[in-house]
Structure formats: C-alpha cells, structure tokens
Write a structure and sequence with these properties.
This protein is α+β, with helices and mostly antiparallel strands. It has helices spanning 7-18, 22-29, 33-41, 52-59, 63-68, 123-128, and strands spanning 78-82, 90-92, 96-99, 109-112, 117-122, 136-140, 155-159, 170-174, 179-186, 192-195, 204-206, 215-224. The strands form 3 sheets. Strands 6-7-12-8-9-10-11 form a 7-stranded antiparallel β-sheet, with no helix packed on it. Strands 1-5-2 form a 3-stranded antiparallel β-sheet. Strands 3-4 form a two-stranded antiparallel ribbon. Helix 2 (22-29) crosses helix 3.
Amino acid sequence: MNEKTTLAERLTLALSDSGLKKSDIARLCSISPASVSDWFAGKSKSIKSIYLPKVAKLLGVSSTWLATGNGPMKSPNVLVTEGVCDNDDWVEIPEYKIRFAAGLEQNSTLEELSSEYKAAYRRSWFQRKNINPEDCKRFKVKGDSMEPLLLDHDVVLVDCSKTEIIDGRIYAFVFGDALRVKRLYRKIDGSIMVHSENPNFPDETIKPEDTEQVQIIGEVIERSGSI
C-alpha cells in the first residue's frame, strides 16, 4: 500500500475488506460514533494509541500499516510455532492424514499428525468469517493438479462442517483410496464433476452410482505454503 494514503483512506479500505461497520469500531472502543466518523472523514490525522491496536485487530490489519501506511496491510493469519501457543489471539489447528479402511463398506478415518511444530491461526480471522475453528483441520496437498492456485506440499485449512457441495468451491474429499483437493460441481443427472486448476488435467466425472463412495471432508477455506 502506498505510504501517501491517508488514515481515512486506509480505514475505509480496511473496513470495506472486513465487512464490518463503523458502529462496530465505536462499540469496541467505547467511544461515540461521531468520533469514529471523524477518523473516516479525515478530521483526525491519527488514532490514539489506546485505540489503535484494538481497531487494527478488529479490522484484521497491521497496526503499523493502519497508523502510517508502511509495511503490509495484513498481518499473517497463520503462525508456525515450536511447542504450544498460549496466546489467546491465536488458535492451533492440527494437521491430519487419511487412514484408509480395509474393505469397501467402511469409511476412511482421519489421523492427527504429531509434530514439534504447530500451526496457529488468528482467532479474529475465524470470527470475521463466522467459522468455528474447532470444525477445522489441516491437510497437505500432493501433486500439481491444482497449480497455480495450490502447489505441491501446500497446506490447506478445511472447514469440516461444510460437506454439502456448492458448485465451484474447493473441497477436500476421499475417492478411490486417495485424498483429493478439487473444485466440485453437482450435475443434473446426479454425477459430480471434478475440476483441476491445472489445464493439463482434464475434468473428471464421478458417475451417479459411484457418488456414495465420495467422502467429503470439508471445504477448503485457506492455503499456506509448505510448513
């Protein structure tokens, strides 16, 4: 973001991106709506230090960027730590792998991976998206079929409460003894179209009679590089 942007411009951009309202800021800071409106109107050139961290956290932006325009607008949403993260602003999400069942009548199960390194996500990020972090799990992408959107060994965050297919969204699912991450579409005849971002991988169709073998784990809601 250009350093020459004004506080009012940065606030307007951050508020629009967050989907919140000016009244949410006033309520958080316990100040009058008129005072907040002065920030947005450019009547105030700065935000008091007692309010700045609160406003930045609420809007999901960097305090430094909001105050000065310097640095990246967004702070990282994911943090890799060694050991347990005891900061209430962050929530740890474990990484899982698929353990495949023996036999066609059983579903595969999820197995949590043990690692000395933990991935923690900003709690405010989940709140802004109205997502319960307890419903989320992390999985590693394998292969290049979803490039350039998802790269080999990227880690995706999956909301396991969202198992109903909405056309065009990306899901982690199990089919044919493999964990897959693809865009899914339901067709009128009851089949499922499986779409890869990489044009070298043609669309696939799962026949209606085979859809019962599809185990939807959840919708992909975020990605991060190899960690």
